[in-house]
Amino acid sequence: MVSHDNVFFNASAFVGGLFLLEFGADRFVDHTAVIARRLGVSPTLIALLTAGAEWEELAVIVAALSQGRSSLALGNILGSSISNILGAFSVGLIFTSGEIKFDRSSKIYTALTLLFTVIFVLILAFFKSIGRAAGGILVTLFAAYVVSIGYYIYKGVMAAPEDDDDDSDDDNDDDDDDDDDSETASASDCSESTLKDEESASQKTIPLTPLTPFHENNSAPHEKPPRSLTYHIFQLIAGFLALSLSGYILSHSVSSLADTFELSGTVLGMTVLSIATTLPEKFIAICSGARGQNGIVVANTAGSNIFLLTLCAGVLFLAGDMEALAASVNTFDLLVTAASASVFAVVVFIGAKRWIGIALLVLYFAFIGAEFAFYR
């Protein structure tokens, strides 16, 4: 018999874990960028590792692995990659008016997403014969992606990925904006304000690169002195701890709900968990689409999926339970993953209209229904 108290508690823990997850991701990304800039790390590398990167997804996956829930982690990776395209990219198209055309950088990122998706699907299809070597292959691909894209961005060939978590930074870090003058800036135009730069507080000129926003006024004589490096390290540690704790809460609550309703961990990872952890992408897609910033919609989707299907999947294959992973793979999920990436590429290369976004969203709801109907 289902315990209503148990269901309510785990559902509440899941919601609370989502808020903690976003808080931790914001702190971790913001203060990592500040510390890296203070230490003279390349702004290109900072952008690649903080923008379009799904550190919160990685935290959930690591937490699931620590609890022996490899199937839940795999379901989250597959479900999030599908949700980013059919559930977030589609919404961006719906909120965009008129015919939509995409630039060169968008097409390159989309082609890379399709390439990495095909590699990931092939690895899963032949997973039993490849084993843990698959993890090494995917982590190596992620490293190659960072190096190559970073080089081309530095050379000005491509535009940097847009950060999909910075909108929530504006809400979560109001106090830091007043006292800290954080060095990160909001990549989304959903908010007209941007986070202040510590270099501005020191009346230093911010070097203009393809990855740093232009500020009309680079001096702020009335602002407080910048925070110390120790402060940012403390905030970074706090963000990391929040990420770790939220990952544990989310994976444990979903696992408990799966046991309560006798559902597959893979199915809940493909549906409930992936929908929840990709909410920031959906919000950014709505805002960017409404403002006609199609490049941001594509960059968020592509950057997130590449991170999921390389680094996150690599960690899963290196540390996960091989037998549980092999048993969790089904042809339907692999086909939907590959098909969604293919549709994503076609739409970006030929252009889109609002009705295409509606069609993709309908397909996503159909996919969710099929998961619960046939694979629970």
Principal-axes shape call: globular
Quaternary assembly: single chain
Helix fraction, binned, reads over 70%
Number of helices: 17
The main sheet comes to: none
Note poorly predicted spans: 164-216
Distance between the termini: 18 Å
Overall mean pLDDT stands at 77
Strand content: under 5%
- Cα-atom radius of gyration: 20 Å
The helix-strand sequence is HHHHHHHHHHHHHHHHH
Question: How many strands in all?
Answer: 0
Q: Please state the structural category.
A: mainly alpha
Topology (SSEs and partners):
Elements: H1 4-38, H2 43-50, H3 55-66, H4 70-94, H5 104-125, H6 127-130, H7 133-154, H8 166-172, H9 174-179, H10 198-201, H11 229-260, H12 265-277, H13 279-290, H14 294-319, H15 322-328, H16 331-350, H17 354-374
Helix pairs in contact: 1-2, 1-8, 1-11, 2-7, 3-4, 3-11, 3-14, 4-12, 4-13, 4-14, 4-15, 4-16, 4-17, 5-14, 5-16, 7-14, 11-12, 13-14
Describe the structure.
With 376 residues, the chain is mainly alpha-helical. The protein is built from 17 helices and no strands. It has helices at residues 4-38, 43-50, 55-66, 70-94, 104-125, 127-130, 133-154, 166-172, 174-179, 198-201, 229-260, 265-277, 279-290, 294-319, 322-328, 331-350, 354-374. Helix 1 runs antiparallel to helix 11, helix 3 packs antiparallel against helix 4 (70-94) and helix 13 packs antiparallel against helix 14. It starts with a helix and ends with a helix.
